[in-house]
């Protein structure tokens, strides 16, 4: 069963001329014993969000993305580390039943691990992959990074000391098409520190995909 609510407070703090009210729809994904709650908002191409374990399902960054994307933010707080890979396969079936044949995925902080697992388990479904301040990547995922087919954007703050930079460099080294971007002056909480600076490359990447990576990487080689 779905429950819908509109709460102006969800986006009241954003500095924008767009409407400040966002309507969210609550529901559950179920398949093969998997039962995951989610919040959905927005219209457009689907974007699956794997939020931090202790974070909000809709933070200011995700709220902004819902202005142009159909955002589905998953609550996987009870499914971490030991069941990530198993959950990824079940999520693939659940998304298919939900009518999501292709989608983009974004993993934030320790949500990067299940997002990566999803890209590895369902390469035919994940169109683009975004990892923000990735930490706690499982060994199972890191040894299979070369199996990620989706163009990937990794964003890390220059002041982040959590290990995200090392994880980002590993992703850039192993993933076929991956761009690692450093956000100047930002700590681990990228959106809290520099919302618009974090949002802009994400939106460009969602629009351009692999062409975004080719363009950015060529600038690194020939500034």
| Secondary-structure element string | EEEEHEHEHEHEHEHHH
Top-tier CATH class? Alpha Beta
What share of the residues lie within helices? Answer: 25-40%
Total E-strand runs: 9
Q: Largest sheet at a glance? A: 9 strands, mixed
Radius of gyration: 16 Å
How does the SSE layout of this entry go?
Blueprint: E1 3-7, E2 22-31, E3 34-41, E4 46-50, H1 60-65, E5 70-74, H2 84-97, E6 103-108, H3 112-121, E7 126-132, H4 139-142, E8 152-157, H5 164-174, E9 178-183, H6 190-193, H7 195-208, H8 210-221
Parallel strand pairs: 4-5, 4-6, 6-7, 7-8, 8-9
Antiparallel strand pairs: 1-2, 2-3, 3-5
Helix pairs in contact: 2-3, 7-8
Give a written overview of the molecule:
It is a single chain. Strands 1-2-3-5-4-6-7-8-9 form a 9-stranded mixed sheet, with helices on both faces. The model is unreliable at 1-5 and 7-20 (pLDDT under 50). The protein is built from 8 helices and 9 strands. The protein is an alpha/beta fold. Helix 2 packs across helix 3 (112-121) and helix 7 (195-208) crosses helix 8. It has a single domain (3-221), classed as 3-Layer(aba) Sandwich (Rossmann fold), CATH 3.40.50. Helix 1 (60-65) links the parallel strand 4 and strand 5 (70-74). The longest helix is centred in the middle third of the chain and has 14 residues, at 84-97. It has helices spanning 60-65, 84-97, 112-121, 139-142, 164-174, 190-193, 195-208, 210-221; strands at residues 3-7, 22-31, 34-41, 46-50, 70-74, 103-108, 126-132, 152-157, 178-183.
């Amino acid at each position: 069963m779905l429950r819908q609510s509109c709460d102006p407070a969800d986006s009241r703090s954003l500095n924008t001329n767009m409407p400040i009210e966002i309507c969210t729809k609550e529901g559950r994904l179920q398949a093969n014993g998997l039962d995951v709650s989610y919040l959905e908002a927005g219209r457009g191409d689907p974007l699956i969000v794997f939020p931090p374990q202790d974070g909000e399902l809709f933070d200011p960054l995700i709220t902004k993305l819902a202005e142009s994307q159909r955002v589905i933010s998953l609550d996987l707080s009870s499914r971490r580390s030991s069941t990530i890979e198993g959950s990824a396969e079940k999520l693939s079936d659940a998304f298919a039943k939900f009518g999501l044949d292709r989608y983009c995925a974004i993993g934030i902080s320790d949500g990067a691990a299940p997002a990566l697992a999803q890209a590895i388990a369902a390469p035919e479904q994940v169109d683009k992959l975004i990892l923000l301040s990735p930490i706690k990547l499982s060994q199972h995922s890191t040894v299979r990074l070369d199996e990620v087919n989706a163009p990937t954007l990794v964003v890390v703050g220059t002041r982040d000391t959590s290990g995200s930079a090392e994880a980002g460099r590993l992703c850039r080294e192993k993933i076929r098409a991956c761009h690692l971007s450093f956000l100047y002056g930002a700590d681990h909480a990228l959106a809290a520190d520099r919302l618009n600076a974090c949002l802009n490359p994400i939106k460009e990447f969602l629009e351009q995909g692999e062409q975004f990576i080719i363009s950015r990487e060529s600038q690194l080689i020939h500034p």
